[in-house]
Design brief:
- By secondary structure, this protein is α/β, with parallel strands linked by helices.
- The chain has two domains: about 160 residues; about 210 residues, 3-Layer(aba) Sandwich (Rossmann fold), CATH 3.40.50.
- Helices cover about 40% and strands about 20% of the residues.
- It has 15 helices and 14 strands.
- The protein has an eight-stranded mixed sheet with strand order 3-4-2-1-5-6-8-7, with helices on one face. A six-stranded mixed sheet has the order 11-12-10-9-13-14.
- The longest helix is centred in the first third of the chain and has 17 residues.
- This is Protein-arginine rhamnosyltransferase.
- It holds the Pfam family EarP.
- Belongs to the glycosyltransferase 104 family.
Length: about 375
């Protein structure tokens, strides 16, 4: 059994901790490692894992030792592998101990997921850190030559079994207070603030098909409240009807329940990295709100993914999907883009399953990290 330390500095509330928590659990459960997950904001972790206690400095949760990464952090026994997640800066005491160790640990900088071409050339490259210490860049990705994406061993089997069981779906949704209307299309919405939301909601309200929009608590609720003309906060359980659109606000749920919500829906609007990956494993059409970056750097990342994801679609379907994603991320034009997208729905649904199967044919991120570690011995 090897020991792994994963350091996570919480950014944007849940994105970074969401990825590292899934990774830590998988390394422990499927690869048998002792994993310590160091988190600087325990409250954010508890939102994803309600059975945890934010007051504890360290605790065992789902086979992982979860520790508070406080400002006065002190070096402990070195792990065999140290993961610096998403460019967070390790404690100086940790780096000093690693340099002084007779047998230095494998130090990995786990980068953000990207489909850009340059990722393949940078994946696995070393960066000398002095006194013989090396840090290696580890890039998740969607093509050979990258680190893959997170996927638990039985994830797709569990997803397919759940989707094939209407009773399980009804029971799960009922537990969230959701009653599915006859012939209704279910859409989940988890996004950053977006001025284009109103146009989309207007289009859904007059769409010939009834839509139930399920909105977990998050940053998009302010825009939703503005469109509705509501004065107060939208609390879990809030519902509203506008034409053929029914909206319902959901509580912030655990990661496993969020997976099931994605599996239940016909279309998933997601944000960032963690929910983006989980929506792909749901095998359903999706809409990605990429994290906005300075000087529009995120557009290159969005287009790089679309260049891969659109392969295999008919030209008309690919163009419609491309315009929908661009409109959502630009915050304008969603009404027209949604109307143009409707005829391509069956093709998108089939394509989502094909993409899922294609990605599942490659090693997942935890397996790729394990292989990299084994090759370093």
């Amino acid at each position: 059994m090897a020991s792994w330390d994963i350091f996570c500095s919480v950014v944007d509330n849940y994105g970074d901790i969401g990825v590292t928590w899934r990774l830590a659990r998988q390394l422990a459960a499927e690869h048998g490692h002792h994993v310590r997950l160091w988190v600087d904001e325990p409250a954010a972790f508890v939102a994803l894992c309600p059975q945890a206690d934010a007051r504890l400095k360290r605790q065992q949760v789902a086979g992982v030792e979860v520790c508070h990464w406080a400002a006065d952090w002190q070096s402990e026994a070195l792990a065999d592998v140290v993961i610096e997640a998403f460019g967070c800066t390790l404690p100086e005491a940790q780096v000093a101990a690693m340099r002084a160790a007779a047998r230095q640990p494998l130090w990995l900088n786990l980068e953000y997921l990207s489909a850009e071409d340059w990722v393949v050339g940078c994946h696995g490259l070393p960066s000398p850190q002095g006194q013989g210490l090396q840090k290696y860049f580890f890039f998740p990705g969607f093509v050979a030559g990258t680190g893959g994406v997170l996927r638990e061993r039985e994830l797709l089997a569990r997803r397919r079994a759940f989707q094939a069981d209407p009773a399980a779906r009804r029971v799960f949704l009922a537990g969230l207070g959701i009653t599915v209307q006859d012939q209704a299309r279910l859409i989940s919405l988890f996004a950053y603030e977006n001025p284009g939301l109103g146009e989309w909601l207007d289009a859904l309200a007059v769409d010939p098909q009834v839509t139930q929009l399920l909105v977990p608590r998050g940053r998009i609720l302010g825009d939703l409240r503005q469109w509705l003309g509501e004065a107060g906060d939208l609390e879990p359980g809030f519902m509203a009807q506008r034409g053929n659109l029914q909206l319902q606000v959901l509580p912030f749920v655990s990661q496993d329940d969020y997976d099931r919500l994605l599996w239940c829906c016909d279309f998933n609007a997601v944000r960032g990295e963690d929910s983006f990956v989980r929506a792909q494993w749901a095998g359903r059409p999706l809409l990605w709100h990429i994290y906005p970056q300075e000087e529009g750097a995120h557009w290159e990342k969005l287009d790089a993914f679309l260049a891969l994801y659109l392969q295999g679609l008919s030209p008309a379907a690919a163009q419609a999907l491309h315009e929908l994603w661009r409109a959502w991320n630009a915050g304008a034009g969603m009404g027209a883009a949604w109307v143009a997208a409707r005829p391509h729905w069956p093709e998108w649904r089939e394509h989502a399953e094909k993409w899922c199967a294609e990605q599942a044919s490659r090693p997942d991120l935890a397996a790729a990290l394990e292989q990299f570690y084994q090759e370093s011995l």
